[in-house]
Design brief:
This protein is of the alpha+beta class and about 100 residues long. It is built from 3 helices and 2 strands. It has a domain of about 40 residues. It has a two-stranded antiparallel ribbon with strand order 1-2. It is elongated.
């Protein structure tokens, strides 16, 4: 595929890149070469090739996705300037902040 100056000018405009008029022609040639290289990739035989996310074949360790409360309410609230102490299941264990809406 060959790009002309008008197409390169439009690409530069869309990319918000200022390209001087005398640089459009050389840039058109460079972009045409890049597109040619990308088109060559369609000639590569990929039948039966598994998609991959890394060149190293490995499986990352995973943990069980279990919902819990963290069990560290006291530790977290220890960093607060002001807080309600943890008491029982329902009450307490909150950060206390100044009222901002009257």
């Amino acid at each position: 595929m060959s790009l002309d100056k008008d197409t390169v000018r439009k690409i530069a405009f869309l990319a918000r890149i200022r390209v001087p008029e005398d640089a459009l022609e050389p840039l058109a040639g460079e972009l045409s070469n890049i597109i040619g290289w990308v088109e060559q990739l369609s000639e590569v035989e990929t039948e039966g090739v598994e998609p991959m996310t890394s060149v190293a074949d490995m499986t990352w360790p995973r943990r069980d996705d279990v919902v819990n409360d963290g069990g560290m309410a006291e530790d977290v609230l220890a960093n607060a300037t002001d807080s309600e102490p943890v008491s029982g299941e329902e009450g307490g264990g909150f950060f206390t902040v100044p009222k901002v809406v009257e």
